[in-house]
Design goal:
single chain, Pyruvate-ferredoxin Oxidoreductase, domain 3, 187 residues, alpha/beta, 6 strands
């Protein structure tokens, strides 16, 4: 029985890629799971590419360095180009749809396109797009509980932004709803 879930989260710096991965890691620690969070970003940060590998496991993690993933959460075209082919057969490729020009043509994985940026703009706060994506991911792969994500968010989000916690919770729940309405038909 597989006890680990290996994830790559990738996009441009400034899209909340690293914080999305960190929130998953913190939530998993609240559930007493083993966790690895390994960020990677270019020197330009905001606007450059950024990604992080997150591993959540019920047992010890042998190595944080992996090249194949159970899930990929991608927020832009360069990330789908780089990581779509590295999702394991039967895995999940979750895409923020406004950032994708050429979608993946793989038919051996679940592909979920989420209009996170569009929905975040409706909430009048584009910065919560990453929480919409996280909510959608957790609907498809419930590796941590939403209540622990909310606790982790409070720890990860700087105190000066704690007034945004209710909006982030709304965004997470919206993402879960969007993913629950999506029907995946395997090839």
């Amino acid at each position: 029985m597989k006890t680990a879930h290996e994830i790559i989260v990738a996009g441009f710096g400034g899209q909340g890629v690293l914080s999305l991965g960190l929130i998953i890691a913190y939530a998993a620690m609240k559930e007493n799971k083993e966790v690895s969070w390994m960020p990677s970003y270019g020197p330009e940060m905001r606007g450059g590419t950024a990604n992080c590998i997150v591993i959540v496991s019920d047992s010890r993690i042998s190595s944080p360095i992996i090249t194949q993933f159970d899930s990929a959460i991608v927020l832009n075209q360069p990330s789908i180009d780089k990581f779509a082919g590295r999702v394991k057969q039967g895995g999940l490729l979750l895409c923020e749809q406004s950032g994708i020009v050429t979608p993946s043509s793989r038919n051996d994985i679940e592909i979920l396109n989420v209009p996170a940026m569009e929905e975040a703009q409706k909430l009048q706060k584009k910065q919560v797009a990453n929480m919409i994506v996280l909510g959608a991911f957790l609907e498809r792969r419930p590796i941590v509980l939403l209540e622990n994500v909310l606790k982790a968010l409070k720890e990860v989000l700087p105190e000066r932004h704690h007034h945004l916690l209710p909006l982030n919770e709304q965004a997470l729940k919206l993402g879960k709803k969007l993913a629950s309405e999506f029907v995946h038909e395997p090839a």
